[in-house]
Structures are given as C-alpha cells and as structure tokens.
C-alpha cells in the first residue's frame, strides 16, 4: 500500500478535527483540543515541525560505499530503526468514533512489532485506556511501552501492576501531562512529581523507566538524579503549555547535560526519515513520531503502519548514505548545517 493511499483513506474516517494533511505540521488542526491540535494559540505544534525544517543536511558522498545499517539497541532488545510510534491515548475523544483505544492499540502494537519497531501506548482519564493498552502489549510479547500519566502515587501503583502484568519491556511517564486541559481538577489528581517521588516511582516500575516531557537541561539532570534510564525531550506536541520552545531548539543543550548517561529520545514534528537523521545528528539516540501513526492506522490499519515505517526507514537510509554514515554511530553533528 502506497503511503499516499493511506493518507487518502484516512481522510474518509478520521473524525472531525484531524484532516490527515499531506504534511502533519500543526497548521490546520492548530488549537483543536479535543482533537490532535495544540493548546492556546496552537503555535507550538507548528514551531516543532518548522524548526526541524530549518536544520539542513550536509551531503558528502566522497567515501567508501558500504551497506547502511539502522539497527538500534534498547534495553536488551534490537530494533530495525531508531524511531518508535509515540503514545496517543483517548483516540475516540480526539479522532472520532471509528476506534476504541483497544481497537487502535490492537492494530498499532502488532503492526509496529512486525515492522521491527515498538509502539508507546497512551493513558487517559478513563481507567479503561490503560487496561486496554496493556492488554494489547501483553498479546504481543510485551513489545510495547505503556506511558502512565503522573497520577497520585496510589493510582500510579495500580497502573504499574497492569504494566508488569503485560510483560512490557519498558515503561514511560509523561510527567508534563498535568498541563492537558482535560486532566485538570480531576480525581484522581495528576500533577508534578518531586525527585524523591520519582525515585519511588522508578523503584515501583522494576523495568526500564523513561521520563517523557523534558524540555530543559535542569529537568534532565533532575531526571538523572531520580534514576531514570532515559528521557523523552518533548513538549507533548504543544498540548500542555503554549509558547515553549520547539524540541529541536532545546535538544542540543539537553544532550550536552546528560548525553551518554541515559537514553535520549525526542519527539514533536518529526515527520520524515530526514528529520530522524537530523535528531540523531543533534545527539538524540532515537525519536518518537506520534500523530502520523494515528493517520497510518486510520488510513490502512496494519498495512498503513507498515507502509509508513517502510517510508521513514527508506528516507533515513537514503540520507545516511548521502552523508557517508553507514551505521547510527557514524551520524555526527557536522553532517547537519544549522
Ligand atoms: C491526540 C493525542 C493524544 C496524545 N496522548 C498522549 C498520551 O496519552 N501520553 C503521552 O505521553 N503523550 C500523548 N500525546 C503526545 C504525543 O505522544 C507526542 O508527544 C506529541 O504528539 C508530539 O509528537 P508528534 O508531533 O509526532 O505528534 C498525545 C498527542 C495527541 C495528538
């Protein structure tokens, strides 16, 4: 299935807010929440995408020709590529009635695993969202990363039990989620966590723990102090606080602060294999891509996901070859023009 066909199909069934644009750049959906947009003016999703486009590639083909290898190691598992499907929860609320979270994850999780990557799954105010996400992961040998919201410690403990039962190989927490408009003033409450509380949560997890929603070197250092195995440099696609910088803008300083000491993922507006290359050249170990995987599921189910992964993988390999990087380790910051 061609990716253009996937996008075209998605337009027929993806609900009222997402328009399944050719380029998912945050402009048309701007501030639709519910929906896939961003908070406030909605300009941060647009900025996330735009700032990757300002980073350009330094092509250099004077080198020995070798086979391009994109394999990526994470917590004892080997993946085909250094990109993953990012967590998206409550799909009915944001993308209309076509899929429940269970149906969405039952397509996404195996489709990613079959394409050699893994899916992060989302969480929601409805308790059922995490139950269904972890069930999808357990059906597929634990090949997924559930992402738990920063609820009160009692609720986190209950959700961690679901995570452990699923056999997931790692778990994440979107520590920035309290900024989501539909998560405010709720019971159970969600909100900030101190380093001490995070230490407790990391211990509760018992499996590798990633903290998602890191936007400053200071926060990255606190995450390190809490003992996490990795961070996701993310502003939640602009959905938790308007007027933050883009992730491409803050990534280099965060890499300088904690690079090499933990895994660094980044997300927000990464749309092509060329963008993946740029993120790795700026020092990320791997990336998450969230909204376009939703379009891929709505537009072609498992085949749509396979088509999107194949497209991004091919673009990444092409870019690596054109810059003389034949393995992920060979991608260097002098291969981009800033
Ligand atoms: C509709 C929607 C739901 C989301 N749900 C979650 C979630 O449950 N947990 C989470 O950590 N991030 C969630 N995110 C944020 C994404 O994982 C990601 O950080 C953000 O969209 C930026 O990546 P992108 O530009 O590739 O979409 C959601 C994003 C959208 C658009």
Automatic annotation (TrEMBL):
CDD domains named among the record's database cross-references: alpha_hydroxyacid_oxid_FMN
Cofactors, names only: FMN
Catalytic activity: (S)-lactate + O2 = pyruvate + H2O2
Domain of life of the organism encoding this protein: Bacteria
One Pfam family in the UniProt entry: FMN_dh
InterPro entries, sorted: Alpha-hydoxy_acid_DH_FMN, FMN-dep_DH, FMN_HAD
This protein's UniProt keywords: Flavoprotein, FMN, Oxidoreductase
Boundaries of every FMN hydroxy acid dehydrogenase domain copy: 1-338
Protein name (record): L-lactate oxidase
